[in-house]
Specification:
Distance between the termini of chain A: 40 Å
Shape of chain B: globular
Largest sheet of chain A: 6 strands, mixed
Number of helices of chain A: 0
Shape of chain A: globular
Number of strands of chain A: 11
Order of helices and strands of chain B: EEEEEEEEEEE
Helix content of chain B: under 10%
Strand content of chain A: over 45%
Oligomer: heterodimer
Distance between the termini of chain B: 37 Å
Number of strands of chain B: 11
Radius of gyration of chain B: 13 Å
Largest interface: A-B, 25 and 26 residues
Number of helices of chain B: 0
Largest sheet of chain B: 7 strands, mixed
Helix content of chain A: under 10%
């Protein structure tokens, strides 16, 4: 089984701060990486994907990928209470169409 | 608006019962997936299908089977429900492609087996 590791948290940050979420993966050949947000009692929804080394920015969210070190991170700038959720890292298998998920990091943004 | 619909949000079944969970997507996606989600264990893949009548086992297929007779519909079957199958079940779909891959999830089906 391909492994995707995340710190389970909980991670607490004050409103307006930067939240940093990290994820490592074991399959060196992985090409596609995704961050999903899951509110309590809801299903996951995609917030970012990244394929290339470096940074990808979308509004307050920045995904960072380092294939040599096999980690992907998500930065949330100017964190808001509405960002409080569990964030799931997902890696797409090199072959086939499977996705492997981490166990998620619980984030709480304190007003 | 894209949509993945799961037939039941909440189910309560008894040990030994046969359980059907239905999932329908309206996006003409080739791939469909069934996951279960448990606290501390994350999402674990049960089965997936990349075409009609095609299926592949995921990481935890024991005790489950699936059916995909039409492209838009993917069913998960628990032949004889057991208490350790109490969980949240999530259906998802995606397009085929090396770099495509956003998963669209249904709202989930919370199954309790007594």
């Amino acid at each position: 089984q391909k492994e995707v590791e995340q710190n389970s948290g909980p991670l607490s940050v004050p409103e307006g701060a930067i939240a940093s979420l990290n994820c490592t993966y074991s399959d060196r050949g992985s090409q596609s990486f995704f961050w999903y947000r899951q509110y309590s009692g809801k299903s996951p929804e995609l917030i970012m994907f990244i394929y290339s080394n470096g940074d990808k920015e979308d509004g307050r969210f920045t995904a960072q990928l380092n294939k040599a070190s096999q980690y992907v991170s998500l930065l949330i700038r100017d964190s808001q209470p509405s960002d409080s959720a569990t964030y799931l890292c997902a890696v797409k298998a090199v072959t086939g169409n499977q996705f492997y998920f981490g166990t998620g990091t619980s984030l709480t943004v304190i007003p | 608006d894209v949509k993945v619909t799961q037939s039941s949000r909440y189910l309560v079944k008894r040990t030994g019962e046969k359980v059907f969970l239905e999932c329908v997507q309206d996006m003409d996606h080739e791939n469909m997936f069934w996951y279960r989600q448990d606290p501390g264990l994350g999402l674990r893949l049960i089965y997936f299908s990349y075409d009609v009548k095609m299926k592949e086992k995921g990481d935890i297929p024991e005790g489950y089977s699936v059916s995909r007779e039409k492209k838009e519909r993917f069913s998960l079957i628990l032949e004889s429900a057991s208490t350790n199958q109490t969980s949240m079940y999530l259906c998802a779909s995606s397009l085929v492609g090396r770099y495509t891959g956003e998963l669209f999830f249904g709202e989930g089906s919370r199954l309790t087996v007594l």
